[in-house]
Design brief:
By secondary structure, the protein is mostly helical. The protein is built from 15 helices and 5 strands. It has one domain. Strand 4 and strand 5 form a beta hairpin. The protein is globular and about 65 Å long. It binds zinc ion.
Length: 415
């Protein structure tokens, strides 16, 4: 399934670290350990964790592709026929049948992928002492995320089919525009409505940090009133920070794990990194990138759907596009999203480097920057030097070793 939770996060936040970056290895241990201040066994553990996470990511994508292919080619038609026979309203009202088919396909998808979600989200996190959650707490959060994701996906699907049935040929262009509008609305709502569903968020109350934060925020359009503490520790031991929201809901969220475990100068550098995202307008740029990708993606989807519907000779009739095309639509959109992921990640890594460079220039705290990233690597068990292919395909943030090298370059005066 298209993970709308990750879509929301991707569209609406810019974090200091990616939260679920898988990693792999093949770099001399001593060299990498030195780079991130990890000892041999810490580095080996980070690499082991990275390999398992990468395996989970690959298996998850394989399950998505296989399940949706089976649903599209084998299950869609019989399920649609069954629904039509079930009751007259389902036969007459296409929107109702589309909703029913979507919910059945999604329930099947949750059923086939639950085991892996449980392993990667709960078992693996405990195995590496990264989680603070009991099984019940994990399950509750999983249920909330799924409900939100299914509700949003259903709205998107109903909107797409409505555009196809009413606009016909140009639906893809309208869909890209609508997707952009939805991302702006979600961007504004994320910090005030969506994030509080998962984390307790309160105003930052740390007088000793106020001066540093006010100084850095001065002249950027962001105020101390826009800085919040987020209780990440309810879920994880990992530290993180993020910039979220748009316009009046724009804010910097600092994890309690970061605020409680890091020195003021380290927090200052990390805050400056988030200010960098704000100053360079990265959230807006990611959304504009999303507009571009979605226009190309929906156009490709249109061409593939047309080719499939007209494979027996008669051209596609948009007003009559059958309900049972839904799983195929989900399959195509999921495949396109996988195809675009490396491009979006490349853009994201570029923005992260810009924000890192900004933080170093703005604060001049190269030593605090270095110690902050070493702490983050240690706490989050981040592999400092993952395989380049892993980075290209799946990493939204540069490897820690590269980020540390920026501070060294800065010391030589060429940042
Ligand atoms: Zn960042």
């Amino acid at each position: 399934m298209l993970s709308w939770r990750s879509v929301i996060l991707l569209l609406t936040t810019a974090r200091i670290l990616s939260t679920n970056d898988p990693s792999t290895d093949e770099i001399p241990l001593a060299e990498a350990a030195g780079a991130a201040g990890l000892n041999g066994s810490e580095l080996a553990e980070a690499k082991r964790y990275g390999r398992l996470e990468l395996s989970c990511t690959l298996i998850d994508k394989a399950i998505d592709a296989a399940y949706l292919a089976v649903a599209a080619l084998l299950l869609a038609h019989p399920l649609d026929n069954w629904l039509q026979q079930l009751s007259p309203p389902l036969k007459e009202i296409w929107t109702l049948r589309l909703t029913a088919l979507f919910l059945i396909v999604t329930a099947g998808h949750v059923a086939v992928s639950f085991g892996l979600s449980f392993y990667s989200g709960h078992v693996l996190e405990h195995k590496f002492q990264l989680s603070n959650q009991t099984f019940g707490q994990w399950l509750w959060r999983y249920a909330k995320r799924m409900t939100l994701s299914v509700a949003l996906s259903l709205c998107v699907i109903l909107g797409l089919y409505w555009l196809i049935w009413t606009l016909g040929h140009w639906w893809w262009l309208a869909a890209a525009g609508a997707f952009f509008v939805v991302s702006v609305v979600l961007g504004q709502l994320a910090p005030v409505l969506i994030l509080p569903l998962f984390y307790r968020i309160e105003k930052l109350d740390r007088p000793e940090l106020t001066d540093r934060i006010s100084r850095l925020a001065a002249g950027t359009g962001l105020s101390i009133a826009g800085v919040y503490r987020m209780d990440l520790s309810a879920e994880t031991v990992r530290a993180n920070a993020m910039l979220a929201g748009l316009g009046r809901t724009r804010r910097v969220l600092l994890g309690d794990t970061l605020l409680d475990g890091f020195q003021p100068e380290e927090i200052e550098v990390i805050f400056a990194h988030e200010i960098g995202h704000h100053v360079y307008r990265h959230v807006l740029k990611i959304m504009l990138g999303g507009l571009f990708y979605s226009a190309i993606g929906f156009l490709a989807c249109d061409r593939l759907l047309a080719a499939w519907v007209s494979r027996h000779g008669s051209p596609i009739d948009y007003a009559q596009l059958p309900v049972y095309s839904l799983p195929l639509m989900l399959f195509i959109l999921t495949m396109l999203a996988m195809l675009f992921e490396p491009l979006q990640n490349a853009l994201s890594r570029h923005f992260e480097r810009q924000a890192d460079s900004y933080a170093l220039r703005r604060t001049g705290l190269n030593d605090a920057y270095r110690s902050a990233f070493r702490k983050l690597a240690k706490l989050n068990k981040d592999d400092p030097t993952p395989h380049w292919l892993d980075v290209v395909l799946f990493h939204s943030h540069p490897p820690i070793a590269q980020r540390l090298a920026m501070a060294d370059a800065g010391r030589e005066g060429d940042l």
